[in-house]
Amino acid sequence: MAMYSRLPGSVALITLQNPPVNALSAAVRQGIVDTVQRALKDPKVTSVVICGQNGKFCGGADIREFAGPMLGPPLVPMIHAIEAVDKPVAAAIEGVALGGGLELALGCHYRIAHSKALLGLPEVTLGLLPGAGGSQRLPRLIGLTAALDLITTGRHISAAEALKLGILDQVTDNNVVDQAVEFVRRVAGQPLDSRRLSTLPCPCPPDVDSLLDKAMVKVRQRSRGALAPVACVQALMAAASLPYTQGMEKERDLLTTLFNSGQARALQYAFFSQRVVGKWSLPSGASWDNSAARTISKAAVIGLGTMGRGIVVALALTGISVVAVETQEKQLAEASQAVPAMLQREAGRRSLATPPGVISFSSNLQDVSEVELVIEAVFEDMSLKLQVFRHLTSVCRPGTLLCSNTSGLDIDQLAAVTQSPGLVVGMHFFAPAHVMKLLEVVYGPRSSPEAVATAMQLGKRMGKVSVAVGNCPGFVGNRMLKPYLEQANFLLEEGATPQQVDEALEEFGFPMGVFRMSDLSGLDVGWRIRKEAGLTGPGVESTRTRQGRRYSPLPDQVCEAGRLGQKTGRGWYQYDGPGGRVARSDPWVHIFLEAYRAEHGLVARSIAPEEILERCLYALINEGFNILQDAMAAGPEDIDAIYVFGYGWPRHHGGPMFHAGQVGLGRILERLQHHHHNHPDVPHLKPSTLLRRLVAVGSPPVQTWREFINKERVHSQL
Ligand SMILES: CCCCCCCCCCCCC[C@H](O)CC(=O)SCCNC(=O)CCNC(=O)[C@H](O)C(C)(C)COP(=O)(O)OP(=O)(O)OC[C@H]1O[C@@H](n2cnc3c(N)ncnc32)[C@H](O)[C@@H]1OP(=O)(O)O
What we know:
The protein is α/β, with parallel strands linked by helices. The chain is built from 28 helices and 19 strands. An eight-stranded mixed beta sheet has the order 12-11-10-13-14-15-16-17, sandwiched between helices. The radius of gyration is 28 Å and the shape is globular.
């Protein structure tokens, strides 16, 4: 809705009313059309101000409406009608003016914003383009170069930057509506022609073609396979070369194509998943709205390797005082040099003048006695972690939360050696911990709702997407990674090369294929885990069956050859020396694979990219269904958020579980059955019961699975 009021001095005030962000729903659009008409007809009104209720101008089109038929007045003619009004209209921008919200403001003749407001055209992140004239008006206002940057990245900008770019006419620290009212009173009666952006030419640099070509190359590189960034550049090409009306036709055509693409649905699903996971719930009934979180101001991090250092920086950036403990003197000395530099760099990147938190370094575990929360980030070794937890529980004051950054070890086993098992949770960060957005918060059977709520809230304060997951080997992300890696190795045995596997995955949209990623992370990580699990090492026979199932010793043999990935300059690829970044095909690997196949009597066959994708992705998805079935994740959104924010799953494919729905659950089931039939010794290819149940009830949409699973559980079907 929109409220109309007449202010003294002949100004009409139109207030958008649709909490929480005043999205442009059908009712709001109708309200704007009606109130603008009223202001136009009222002879006593000489100027108009449009603002939003509750300190937010407008968060854009109502994304929830995109799933249904379009009702109510369309946005494009509504904004044209505002631009055509012959009385000055100003947008008074507080909070946010995003997407359709900014497009509405661009249809106004003037824009006044509060200094804390954020502006942007983030449609590209939802698989769309600014489709209410934004792709044509913004470049006419600020020039093609700046518009390309804003529209293809979708980034939010501050009021100060918007003023500099020429989007805003005035920025204020005071009441923005008062300022806008004063502004329009001042300009009432002045000519408006030059304020109608649709009538202006688009300022372009002389090398416009090369600018647009470069922009196209850049967006294609940045998000391989994504349609929206390409369409954004095409819309801006139209703005640069065509009259406004034809540019608008192009905008509409491109938008229609995007709207009907699976990618837009995937990206909009990803937007809502990110919000759904914040509303966490545990099988015990504890949830975000019935569990109180503690506010942490003092924390400690134990272990200052790569992960520990990143965690210290992430906490300090949030304003938390951190005691950073490392018992090895050499490592401590290195960390006390490196961490302040990392902190300074990251604060600069986030435009913070000074990092808010204070860090003190220590080699003494006793120094954590006064903190409210400890994050253990020592080497991934259970006996070492148990030793640290035993020590912590005796040193820390009662009530201190004890968290582990383990990437897959048993949280309950750690909790068992403490005096308060309820205060133990996992906080699984992803490297680099101060940059990566994902945090898995792992609850054990004894973790208290308060401990989970505190870890979830702390993650949010650090700017992370926190996802609550159950305590099982590998938790959610790494548990699903296992069958994915396993299939990649089997494909090499059967005839594929690391490049072929990586290319298929990168073509799908992963920033890095599985072998390039393994080289980056270090091949010794998995090797150590396999040794601990008794799968490889001295005394283990070198067969292709271990512990009753198919096993590929390929990655172990690569490690045994001293090839540990980028850090040794050799892995599945070769690099320009230890620490090198550019992966090149290595003849050694090809000779090694041929010799391996010959030794095991395997005949290499040609493997199509479609099979590579099916084998790797469907095995991973199948494990996702097992995780849902075991209640280790509350819903498909949790798994999808983990994969998008932590594992490079292309956002325009929504996440593995959403992707399964898009491919068709029946198809996934049929292909898993086919591959399991061919490889009966690979249990990960055996279709999960949940997948079978979903197919049996007609493959309902992903948004309904959570409810379905809960019902099935009640009726003991899972
Ligand atoms: C068939 C072919 C037809 C082709 C033609 C079709 C014609 C259609 C014409 C379309 C024209 C295009 C118009 C325009 O160009 C498109 C858009 O505007 S798309 C929307 C762009 N806006 C955004 O991307 C902003 C999204 N929101 C945010 O980034 C954040 O929410 C925020 C505004 C910065 C606020 O952040 P927070 O304060 O942290 O709050 P939350 O994020 O938690 O949000 C609170 C609550 O609000 C819900 N919400 C937020 N924005 C929207 C929205 N735009 N629409 C609907 N709902 C929104 C959010 O989900 C939260 O709700 P909850 O999930 O908690 O219930």
